[in-house]
Amino acid sequence: MGLIDSQVSVAFALSLLGGLSTSIGALLVVAYKAPNLKMLGILQGFASGLMLSISFLDLAHNAINSIGFLKANLWFFAGVVFFGLITHFIPEPNLVPLSNTKSGDDEGGKDVMKKHRRQVLLSGIITAIGISLHNFPEGMAVFLGSLKDLRVGLNLALAIALHNIPEGVAVALPIYFATESKRQAFKVATLTGFAEPLGVIIVAYLFPRNLSPEIMEGLLASVGGVMAFLTLHEMLPLAFDYAGQKQTVKAVFFGMAFMSASLHFLQSSLPAEISL
Question: Which of 230, 199, 127 has the alpha carbon at shortest distance from 169?
């Protein structure tokens, strides 16, 4: 029991270091003044690319490999339907095109900006939740890798740390823009990193007894569905309106390429018998 507790402590510390690298991403955002709307649109496009890569190339892909094509898709679209119902019954403030804000009076422009900020804030909150859930299996992988070999755990923690920096940007950016608070943006982005040590605790003490691997993979596929719906329904329209189609599409593909390279580096750090 003492050996297991020691291994859990080491894995917890490694996953904490890896998870808290989201704070580095947050620092990159809050170190500068809040972006203007065009820059926000470009960065939202980049974050959309990150989210789509996580959704389709990581969560859904792993679920298909683990529980089969049909079950994975059922779970994935259950997440889509679930979040679609939420947005239907809790509608967001309508997005007013930016061109309309220029012709209105100052008071009207302030009202439009408040609507923009509320929409961006909800986008940031859902992004934080989605990335937090995405981070659970990374903490689990650190634990399993550390059990095999401390060197594997260290390499994996380093890979996750690099992988989490753009996730910190994706979370902190909309929170900072919506609240104009560096403290809030930094705090929320940092909290998403705590999902990884929590993943260590779950896999070490709860996961084997209370939650089957199939259910876990299905839930993660549902998270992928929620993230895909959020990206296509909320984040991309916002980015198109703020930055224009050409700039947004470039940012989306750059974000996808960045996250794909990050995921490849992360997977290459894992031993063959452990996967994310």
Answer: 127
**Does residue 48 have a pLDDT over 50?**
yes
Burial of 69 (0-12, 13-18, 19+ CB in 10 A): exposed
Structure tokens at 257: 């390429």
**Rounded Cα gap, residues 177 and 124, in angstroms:** 10
Q: Percentage of the chain with pLDDT > 70?
A: 75
Return the number of other C-beta atoms located less than 10 Å from residue 244's C-beta: 14
How far is the CA of 109 from the CAs of 6, 100, 106, 113, 145, in angstroms? 58, 9, 5, 6, 53
State residue 76's pLDDT score.
95
Please state, as a whole number, how many other Cβ atoms lie within 10 Å of the Cβ of residue 151: 10
Output the six-digit token pair for 193. Answer: 């990193």
pLDDT tens per residue, range 73-112: 999 999 899 878 877 775 544 433 444 444 444 555 566 6
Summarised one tens digit per residue, pLDDT across range 177-218 is 888 888 999 999 998 888 888 877 776 776 555 557 788 788
CA 146 to CA 17: how far, in whole Å?
A: 14
Cα separation, 110 vs 161, in Å, equals 39
- Cα 67 from Cα 217, distance rounded (Å): 7
